[in-house]
Amino acid sequence: MDGRGDTNVTKAASAIEADDAVDQRLGETVRLLRQRAGLSIQDVANKTGLSTGMISQLERARAMPSIRTLRLLGIALDVPISYFFESSDPAEAPRYTVRKNARRLLRLTASGVVKEALTPEGKGQLELYELTLNPGASSGTDFLQHTGEKAGYILSGSLRLWLDNQAHVLEAGDSFRFPSIVPHMFDNPTQQVARVIWVTTLRQTDSPAFEAS
Q: Could you tell me which of 101, 161, 163 has the C-alpha nearest to residue 133?
């Protein structure tokens, strides 16, 4: 034996532990936000259209949300989707800038998507991300609608953007913008990793920007 088998097993175990930690943190965040808002699981289900079982599983780290699910939860709990990202050290986080090695991450392992926040922590008028989509990755199985706008630029690979049931296959160098009220979803139908710059404006009912903590 050359030991490579043991190394692979160790790496796989470490990856599983990391995914479990992400699921646990997301679940705790959702539960804390719900409790702070004084909402029951049924209240959140009514606001999002998600089942009570799904919300309960998310809070107990027994299910991994899609981007669509997190967007719905963010709307219901009145926080930007970036609130669910891994937190950086607030004492070291600059107010207006984000260094490459200090980006906050959101790993949606079940969806095959990694989101990196390119905007500082705290609410603002828009959110800027870099998305990495593994082959077959998607935003979820259902269309999403809300107020605001979305725009983006394809850095590499291909993105299939569904707008009102019409598919738009975008390649590196292509870009897009659309009102978020248009039913939308996206996926990567290829066998190559795709990278996308993604911009989302906040809902019209969101509060104005405040200082980043």
A: 161
